[in-house]
């Protein structure tokens, strides 16, 4: 008794079992989360440190390098990059894919504690479990027509960001335009000098005046009292009344020497939403979190958040990535339903009977339902790739049932009862069905082992497809023969014995009859002229290789998600006021485009933007039906900003897959690193200039940013020492005056705010720096004195000792706290300095930035970069490599070759095991080259590159096309065992299997056709897969119907020759010496 006989004899149990599968599938489908793509997040952490007032080189030396030395000792760290800019250090750590991100976070925290950082650092390093190159999953805008931005920022920072960070799945909330309230003390150096005070005196006085510490309690016999004082100052009015000193017995208050205001912590930040100043909250997800579920939780929280805000403050959604994700998933769901309808229509067109159509069609919902149940159990998601797998599987899952029903029908036509025919037919065809399934699943094994991020991206695709195919085999071996046994009758068959002619021709259908007759005649001619067929098969192999070499190659298709991000870049020494004006002008120009729904922009150095000469742009496009494609919109947006002088605009569409871990204005990067920062910078500039001449590349630039304006002060150390002025005194004076130094903290019920010390804005010029500031000879601070003697006069003295200088008629008692004008101790010159210091793997690094020029592919661009690299002679210590998407592409090109070869080897091994033959697998594999030709031609004709999903389509073709070969070869082997000659066996097999081959091929083709022709949201990712399948099937179906029988006969002759050789050896006489 065969496996199928158990289910044929127990129809009730079989039906109930399948009903249970449907129920589990329904429950599983409801539990599946919706996502854009499978979760393939690279385990990464970002460590940020703020040190206001420090320039890029200072940040790199004092903060970034000590942290990198500790992080470099963490196991599992694959790549460490860092950017140090004014007041900000950002270190990005990317770990191996098998590294647990939570454990890695603990190691990072321990490394931070071990690092030796400056004691004056106002903020400790903070790490977040996010990918810095990820874009926000949802952006909220906060604004008001009546309140100042400092209050809006307070609500965003103290209330909204805190509550949003608590939402499950949120990794980080970044606030653009977060100026934060602060008390700013703007000192007038002249008034300070008149009062006999220094900036350091002022800083110390302010620090002592504002404290918040425990005081203890009083415990009496009957009562206890906690002790509190008015030691906490909370606003500018409180600070103005601070007594900082006494002069002639009268108090000197802070208001006498400074303008104290309730201002903002950072006055060089600005953000806009649709042309209106606002605060933007960008929510980044935690790696592994489901985007759709996380955004739904945030949306559910919005009413509560709005209730916490004043009525005149508006909280609105600016952009939501899940809108296009949901639309894309719905589009694929519709495609799935359409595909099911097309496949059922194909079955009915061939079988033309209700029950005969229903039996194989039942395999579709059962296989899909079972797949949903397994997906839910395995924590998979309902995303574009898993749904694409189900769409493709719809054309596969009916194949086994079609083969099964075809075989059972033959025995019913011979006069056997339904149950007997079902048991005999199922037992006979069971091995074929098993061979079809096992060989198809085997195709996906190399895909499951494909390394890299793109490989992991298609792991879920392969699993879903494999599960569906295995379940279809189970249905075909259980439910299909049972239904055939009880539902099929001779008069209800698709074709009766009387209607079927010799060799399977259908006399009732003139169209089908002519098709079979034409195939029979052409097959006889081909079998009579096998050399022509062999030549065509050889040409298919050669043509496949040539087309693969010639076709443009890419990584993943560019998606239109309705969101565009951009960078506005200006001269490196530009002032904040000008950068603010130009960024706003760019945003206004972009808003005027008819395809744009909303625009947000922000400028200022911070966690979202490293330098002052860059601004960030976010563009939300209108619905797909209301605008053109990205290919038309992006160039138009670029042209719309040409009237804004002095800026360059870089735009790139947001993608569902983020392969970078470094924020860059262009899609692709090439990194240079070495021991010597100057050598790296020189070679990076040389390479940038060379690449700009290549037509394959566009937007070529680099991130050196080493031309920022700087005022370099050269201190005369010898004379400063003679005058008793230590370097620390000069440094403190400059930091107090120009570093926006945060000298105290104001503690409130829900947040903490800073007190910022600086000189008044009118003194922030080079002239004022040298003429107004002075330093104390004992290092206590700076004093502007009208009676101070210039250092030049002091230097003219012949005395060589400090005491001698002090005794001269200079008006400065050096040994008793006199002051020296800063201009007497330093020489200044305008120079350049890096705005950003970049490291990669702890070495100085520079990034070459580029995009692919229109009309070229990523493979062209990568080849151009490699050619330029070979032409340039670099020092031995300078090294270069692609990073991000470009690195993933170069790796994938090697992986693809091995993937295809591994698929062929696995199929050969599996088929060899199934048939216990070395020869027959070669016959079946010979059907594959024409499929490759068709797939590559289809992509080239439609103007598409060969991307990873196109390669996956070719791998699927390997599994689909070889089914035809299996059906032919399997039947021919059985016919030979029954006594037929190889020629008669393969000829009869081709004619009898012509209809099931056409049915299964058409089912697979129509299953992929909606993917190839779809134009809805997300079609860019689906189209290459569908086109490669459709093109491959069309060509292979035409060719393999002829090449397979010819190659089968040649392989049989070869086997016969081998048998004769073995017989001759065994029959040869033994010659004795």
TrEMBL record:
- Fetch the Pfam families from UniProt: ACR_tran
Bilayer-crossing regions: 12-29, 332-351, 358-378, 429-449, 461-488, 896-915, 935-961, 997-1019, 1025-1051
Membrane disposition: Multi-pass membrane protein
Indicate the principal place this protein occupies in or around the cell.
Answer: membrane
The entry's keywords? Cell inner membrane, Cell membrane, Membrane, Transmembrane, Transmembrane helix, Transport
**What's the superkingdom here?**
Bacteria
GO molecular function terms attached to this record: xenobiotic transmembrane transporter activity
User: Any idea where this protein resides?
Assistant: Cell inner membrane
Gene Ontology cellular component list:
plasma membrane
What organism, scientifically named, is this protein from?
Xanthomonas arboricola
Protein name, entry field = Multidrug efflux pump
Q: Which SUPFAM superfamilies match?
A: Multidrug efflux transporter AcrB pore domain, PN1, PN2, PC1 and PC2 subdomains (SSF82693), Multidrug efflux transporter AcrB TolC docking domain, DN and DC subdomains (SSF82714), Multidrug efflux transporter AcrB transmembrane domain (SSF82866)
């Amino acid at each position: 008794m065969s496996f199928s006989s158990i289910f044929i004899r127990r129809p009730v149990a079989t039906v109930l079992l399948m009903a249970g599968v449907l129920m589990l599938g329904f429950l599983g489908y409801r539990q599946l989360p919706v996502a854009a793509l499978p979760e393939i997040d690279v385990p990464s952490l970002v460590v940020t440190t703020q040190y206001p007032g420090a320039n890029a080189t200072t940040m790199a030396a004092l903060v970034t390098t000590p942290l990198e030395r500790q992080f470099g000792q963490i196991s599992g760290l694959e790549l460490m990059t860092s950017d140090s800019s004014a007041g900000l250090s950002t270190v990005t750590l990317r770990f191996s894919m098998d590294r647990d991100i939570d454990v890695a976070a603990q190691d990072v925290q321990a490394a931070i504690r071990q690092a030796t950082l400056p004691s004056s650092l106002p903020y400790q390093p903070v790490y977040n479990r996010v990918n810095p190159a990820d874009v926000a999953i949802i952006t909220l805008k906060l604004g008001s027509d009546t309140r100042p931005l400092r209050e809006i920022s307070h609500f965003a920072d103290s209330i909204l960001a805190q509550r949003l960070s608590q939402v499950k799945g949120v990794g980080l909330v970044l606030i653009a335009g977060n100026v934060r309230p602060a008390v700013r003390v703007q000192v007038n150096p002249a008034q300070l000098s008149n009062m006999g005070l220094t900036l350091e005196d002022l800083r110390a006085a302010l620090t002592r005046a504002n404290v918040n510490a425990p005081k203890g309690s009083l415990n009496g016999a009957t009562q206890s009292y906690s002790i509190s004082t008015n030691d906490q100052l909370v606003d500018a009015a409180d600070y103005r009344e601070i007594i900082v000193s006494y002069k002639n017995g009268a108090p000197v208050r802070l208001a006498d020497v400074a303008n104290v205001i309730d201002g903002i912590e950072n006055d060089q930040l600005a953000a806009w939403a649709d042309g209106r100043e606002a605060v933007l909250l960008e929510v980044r997800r935690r790696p592994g979190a489901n985007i759709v579920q996380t955004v739904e939780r945030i949306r559910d929280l919005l009413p509560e958040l709005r209730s916490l805000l004043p009525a005149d403050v508006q909280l609105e959604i600016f952009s939501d990535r899940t809108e296009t994700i949901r639309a894309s998933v719905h589009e694929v769901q519709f495609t799935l339903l359409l595909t099911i309808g097309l496949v059922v229509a194909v079955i009915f067109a061939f079988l033309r009977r209700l029950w005969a159509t229903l039996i194989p069609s039942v395999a579709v919902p059962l296989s899909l339902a079972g797949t949903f149940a397994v997906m839910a159990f395995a924590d998979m998601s309902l995303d574009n790739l898993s749904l694409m797998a189900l769409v493709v599987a719809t054309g596969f899952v009916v194949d086994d049932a079609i083969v099964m029903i075809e075989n059972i029908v033959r025995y019913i036509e011979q006069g056997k009862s339904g149950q007997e025919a079902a048991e005999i037919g199922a037992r006979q065809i069971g091995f074929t069905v098993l061979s079809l399934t096992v060989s198809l699943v085997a195709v996906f094994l190399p895909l499951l082992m494909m390394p890299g991020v793109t490989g992991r991206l298609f792991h879920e695709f392969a699993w879903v497809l494999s599960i569906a195919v295995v379940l279809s085999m189970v249905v075909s071996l259980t439910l299909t023969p049972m239904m055939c046994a009880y539902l099929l009758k001779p008069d209800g068959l698709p074709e009766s014995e009387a209607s079927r002619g010799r060799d399977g021709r259908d006399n009732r259908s003139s169209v089908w009859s002519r098709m079979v007759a034409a195939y029979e005649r052409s097959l006889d001619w081909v079998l009579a002229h096998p050399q022509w067929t062999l030549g065509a098969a050889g040409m298919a192999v050669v043509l496949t290789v040539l087309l693969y070499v010639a076709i443009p190659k890419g990584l993943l298709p560019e998606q239109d998600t309705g969101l565009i991000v951009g960078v506005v870049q200006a001269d490196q020494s530009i002032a904040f006021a000008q950068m603010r004006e130009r960024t706003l002008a760019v945003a206004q120009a972009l808003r005027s485009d008819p395809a744009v729904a909303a625009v947000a922009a922000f400028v200022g150095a911070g966690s979202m933007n490293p330098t002052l000469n860059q601004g960030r742009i976010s563009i939300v496009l209108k619905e797909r039906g209301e605008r053109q494609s990205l290919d038309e919109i992006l160039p138009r947006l670029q042209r719309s900003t040409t009237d804004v002088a002095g800026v360059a605009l870089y735009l790139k569409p947001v993608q569902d897959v983020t392969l970078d871990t470094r924020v860059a204005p262009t899609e692709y990067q090439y990194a240079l690193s070495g021991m010597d920062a100057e050598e790296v910078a020189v070679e990076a500039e040389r390479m940038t200039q060379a690449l700009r001449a290549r037509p394959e590349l566009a937007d070529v630039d680099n991130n050196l940013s080493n031309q920022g304006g700087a005022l370099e002060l050269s201190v005369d150390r010898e004379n400063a020492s003679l005058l008793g002025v230590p370097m620390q005194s000069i440094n403190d004076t400059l930091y107090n005056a120009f570093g926006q130094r945060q000298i105290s903290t104001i503690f409130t019920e829900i947040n903490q705010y800073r007190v910022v010390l600086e000189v008044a804005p009118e003194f922030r010029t080079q002239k004022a720096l040298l003429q107004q500031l002075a330093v104390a000879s004992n290092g206590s601070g700076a004093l502007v004195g009208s009676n101070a003697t210039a250092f030049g006069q002091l230097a003219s003295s012949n005395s060589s000792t400090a005491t001698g200088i002090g005794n001269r008629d200079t008006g400065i008692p050096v040994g008793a706290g006199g002051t020296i004008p800063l201009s007497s101790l330093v020489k200044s010159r305008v120079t350049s300095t890096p705005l950003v210091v970049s490291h990669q793997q702890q070495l100085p690094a520079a990034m070459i930035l580029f995009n692919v020029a229109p009309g070229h592919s990523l493979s062209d661009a990568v080849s151009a970069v490699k050619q330029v690299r070979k032409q340039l002679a670099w020092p031995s210590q300078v090294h270069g490599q692609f990073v991000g998407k470009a690195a993933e592409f170069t790796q994938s090109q090697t992986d693809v070759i091995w993937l295809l070869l591994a698929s062929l080897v696995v199929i050969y091994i599996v088929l060899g095991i199934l048939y216990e033959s070395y020869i027959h697998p070669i016959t079946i594999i010979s059907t594959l080259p024409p499929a490759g030709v068709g797939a590559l031609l289809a992509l080239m004709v439609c103007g598409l590159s060969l991307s990873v999903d196109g390669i996956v389509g070719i791998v699927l073709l390997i599994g689909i096309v070889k089914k035809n070969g299996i059906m032919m070869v399997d039947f021919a082997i059985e016919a030979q065992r029954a006594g037929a000659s190889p020629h008669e066996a393969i000829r009869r097999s081709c004619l009898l299997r012509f209809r099931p081959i056409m049915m299964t091929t058409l089912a697979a083709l129509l299953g992929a056709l909606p993917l190839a022709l779809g134009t809805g949201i997300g079609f860019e990712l689906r189209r290459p897969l569908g086109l490669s399948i459709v093109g491959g099937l069309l060509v292979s179906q035409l060719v393999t119907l002829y090449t397979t029988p010819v190659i089968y006969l040649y392989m049989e002759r070869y086997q016969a020759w081998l048998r004769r050789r073995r017989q001759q050896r065994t029959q040869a006489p033994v010659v004795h010496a």
